[in-house]
Amino acid sequence: MRYAAMSEKGRVRENNEDSFHADGRVFIVADGMGGHRAGEVASAAAIEIFLDFEGRHRDTPPLERLRGGILEANHAIYRMAEDDPRFAGMGTTFTAALIEEGLYLGHVGDSRAYMCRKGQLRLLTRDHSLVERMVDEGHLSRREARTHPQRNVILRALGISREVEADVDAVDVMPGDSLLLCSDGLSGYLEDGDMEAILCTREGPDRRCRRLVEAANERGGSDNITAVVIDLESEVDGGGRAADAGKRSRWKRIFGRK
Asked: What tens digit of pLDDT does each residue of 69-93 get?
C-alpha cells in the first residue's frame, strides 16, 4: 500500500477547518464548520476521539468500530458545544476508511470517498445534503446541484444534534484499486472527469494528491481542500507506513484539556 495526504486552506479562507489522518490502516477526512475556529476544533476533535475509541475496541468487527467511534465523536462534540458558548453550533463532516482484510467505510456529511478501478472513477459515499435530497426527489439534475445556491446545506454532521445516523459499509477491493477521500473543497470544484483524469493515472500518490489540490485551487479555491490518496498494490492486509496526521491534537489545548 502507498498513500499520501494533503490539506490547504485554499485561496479565500483565512483558516483551514479541515483535518485528516492517514496511517496505513485508518484514513479520515473531516471538514469542520462553525467559524471562529470552532470548525477547526470540531474536525480535529472528531478524529482524535474516533481514533481513541477505535484503538480501544480493536477486538470488535470493523463496521461496529466505525459506527461506535463516529457516534462517540458526535456525542463528545455536541457536549463540548453545549458546555462552551464559543463553540455553539460547531460540527464536522466525517469520512473514514478502515483497511483490514478489506475496505470498510464510515460516513456522515458531504466529504466523500471515491474508488478508481481500471481507469474508471466511482463514488462510494452518498452526500447527506439538501441538494442530494433534491436530486433524489427529482427536483434538480446532478449538474444543477453543483451550482445550486443551497449546495452547502448539510443535513447530517457530527456535533449538530445529540444523535446522528452514520452510513457504514464494506466495499470489495482488489489489487490496483486507488481510493480518494476528500472534503467538498475538492469534490465541489472538480468534475468527476477531472478527478478521474488525475486519480486514475500511474503517477505516485504524492503527485496525484498534489495535482488534485492544485486543480481545485485553480478552479477558485474558495474552500479548504483536503485529499487522501491510497493505492492498493497487493492484497489488503492493513499494512502501511508511519502515521501522517493533520490537526489531531490542538483541540485539547484549546479546551485546556490534559
From this structure: 999 999 999 999 999 988 988 999 9
Alpha-carbon distance of 45 to 74, in angstroms, equals: 10
Extract the C-alpha cell encoding 73.
465523536
Q: What are phi and psi of 145, to 5 degrees?
A: -65, -30
Q: Of 156, 151, 157, 134, nearest to 187 (Cα)? A: 151
pTM summary value: 0.89
- Angle formed at CA 109 by CA 148 and CA 42, multiple of 5 degrees: 115
- Spatial separation of the C-alpha atoms in residues 159 and 73, rounded to whole Å: 8
Secondary structure in 3-state letters for the chain: CEEEEEEECCCCCCCCCEEEEECCCEEEEEEEECCCCHHHHHHHHHHHHHHHHHHHCCCCCHHHHHHHHHHHHHHHHHHHHHHCHHHCCCEECEEEEEECCCEEEEEECCCEEEEEECCEEEECCCCCEHHHHHHHCCCCCHHHHHHCCCCCCECCCECCCCCCCCEEEEECCCCCCEEEEECHHHHCCCCHHHHHHHHCCCCCHHHHHHHHHHHHHHCCCCCCEEEEEEECCCCCCCCCCCCEEECCCHHHHHCCCC
224-255 residue pLDDT tens: 999 999 999 876 654 443 344 565 545 444 44
| 220 contacts 147 by C-beta, under 8 angstroms | no
The cell numbers describing 178, all together, are 486507488
Nine cell digits for residue 3: 498513500
Instruction: Let me know if domain 2-239 sits in CATH 3.30.460.80.
Output: no
Q: Are 112 and 73 in contact (CB under 8 A)?
A: no
User: Count of CB atoms within 10 A of residue 154's CB?
Assistant: 20
